[in-house]
Design a protein that fits this description.
eight-stranded parallel beta sheet; 13 helices; binds N-(aminocarbonyl)-beta-alanine; binds zinc ion
């Protein structure tokens, strides 16, 4: 099948141009000023931008917290992703304590069957030992290029010495080991303080996780990476103070990649005073408007590399598990469908970042960091035909009822946004047409 996208403006990280794009099979075969092939199916992209398919570096579908399980599985989560222009999600295949990496990878591939878009996994290591260290080689053969460890959550967290050993090993085999950076000891002590004062409402969550809890952990992770001779990837950076720590490490000559999320750009801690505050309970928590501003600046200066959603959705009934105790509220929110709209509205249309940076932050940088470039992350001949036709003048007010994810809320409820993934091509096939999923 041949598809020709005509009259659009192709946007890659290095520039934009009026070009037609020819797709043959699953690949882009030509990007030229004018392509006329009578037998090709034509998509008119006049007035639209043509982006490389967006890559979400951070989702949690079908995640079992022990107390409850995410509202979205891979079926609903990837359908929502695709409607937002995301053609690839990177989720987390999480090792169970006592289990092997291979078991985890197989289990998560099983969960991901029937996904609507491309998916890959970072492997989350929770139980480090010598056989896991050996297994990392096997994982490389299976296409795993990245790992993650957590400094928090009782079932997942690892100690500094383990982080050091795992990072050294990751560096040896050319993999990247990312980190959820929060200081567990501090946040435990601060949580106890809140509870001792009978502060059990959602405000206890941000109070027990102030910016220093993140910044100290970022600093420590980056020092461990320095010692291990490893590159670093900070997931869901939420604070200006954390960004400053990353600047210090870069000044020392370290390779540091940074990811932030839309919620840390467009929402702030004022939300915890609202009646439905449980909806905003996530880790790290929402921060100050000054953090929003400095993170946008970090994107504008290309100090921040990627934008993941950390989509980890729970219904309001699930959130109510913590009605009497904020520590029992399942952490996370839904955002996989709205990432590009939020970046476009509050970043591009506000003249903070450019369309080219949108291509970089939402697609190319992730493709480069996680070993998918140049198959993904760029519109050029030979690349995978994962493409978003972005209609800039579509306006809407976000509400969960119009989003495809499977839970009854979104932290971005009521926000007015512009831009729509009007059509999405996935591996050479039209997956979304006029904002509607085709399968
Ligand atoms: O609150 C969050 N972010 N939940 C998902 C798990 C994680 O910490 O990334
Ligand atoms: Zn996460």
């Amino acid at each position: 099948m041949r598809i020709c996208i005509k009259n659009g403006i192709v946007v890659n990280s290095n520039g934009r141009m009026h070009s037609d794009v020819l797709i043959e099979g699953a690949k882009i075969s030509a990007v030229e000023p004018s392509i006329d092939l009578p037998d090709a199916q034509t998509i008119d992209a006049r007035g639209c931008y043509v982006f490389p398919g967006f890559i979400d570096t951070h989702t949690h579908f079908d995640l079992d917290l022990g107390t409850t399980i995410t509202a979205d599985d891979f079926k609903t989560g990837t359908a929502a992703a695709l409607l937002g222009g995301t053609t690839t999600v990177l989720d987390f295949a999480t090792q169970t304590k006592g289990g092997t990496l291979l078991e985890a990878l197989n289990q998560w591939h099983e969960k991901a069957k029937g996904s609507s878009c491309n998916y890959g996994f970072h492997m989350a290591i929770t139980d480090w030992n010598s056989s896991v260290s050996k297994e990392m080689e096997v994982m490389r053969e299976k296409g795993v290029t990245s790992y993650k460890m957590y400094m928090v959550y009782p079932a997942l967290r690892v100690e500094d010495g383990t982080i050091y050993l795992a990072m050294k090993r990751a560096a040896e085999i050319g993999a990247l080991l990312g980190m959820h950076c929060e200081n567990w000891g501090l946040l435990e002590a601060l949580t106890k303080e809140q509870l001792a004062l009978s502060k059990t409402d959602p405000l206890g969550h941000p109070r027990s996780r102030p910016a220093i809890v993140e910044a100290e952990a970022v600093s420590r992770y980056l020092r461990i990476a320095e010692l291990a001779g490893a590159s670093a990837y900070v997931v869901h950076l939420s604070t200006a103070e954390g960004l400053r720590e990353a600047r210090h490490a870069r000044k020392r000559g370290q390779k540091v990649y940074l990811e932030t999320c839309p919620q840390y750009l467009v929402l702030d801690e004022g939300r915890y005073c609202e009646a439905d505050a449980a909806k905003y309970i996530m880790s790290p928590p929402l921060r100050k408007p000054s953090d929003n501003k400095l993170l946008w600046e970090g994107l504008a200066q290309n100090e921040i590399d990627t934008l993941g959603t950390d989509h980890c959705s729970f219904t309001m009934a699930q959130k109510a598990l913590g009605a009497d105790d904020f520590t029992k509220i399942p952490n996370g929110g839904a955002g996989v469908q709205v990432r590009a709209m939020l970046y476009f509205t509050f970043g591009v249309l506000s003249n903070i970042v450019t369309l080219e940076q949108m291509a970089a932050h939402l697609s190319e940088n992730a493709a480069r960091i996680f070993g998918m470039y140049p198959q993904k992350g760029i519109i050029q001949a030979g690349a995978d035909a994962d493409i978003v036709i972005w209609k800039p003048d579509y306006e809407q007010r976000l509400t969960y009822t119009k989003l495809a994810h499977a839970c009854d809320n979104t932290p971005f409820e009521g926000m007015a946004v512009s831009g729509l993934a009007r059509d999405v091509i996935l591996g050479g096939e039209i997956a979304v047409q006029n904002g509607t999923l085709q399968k």
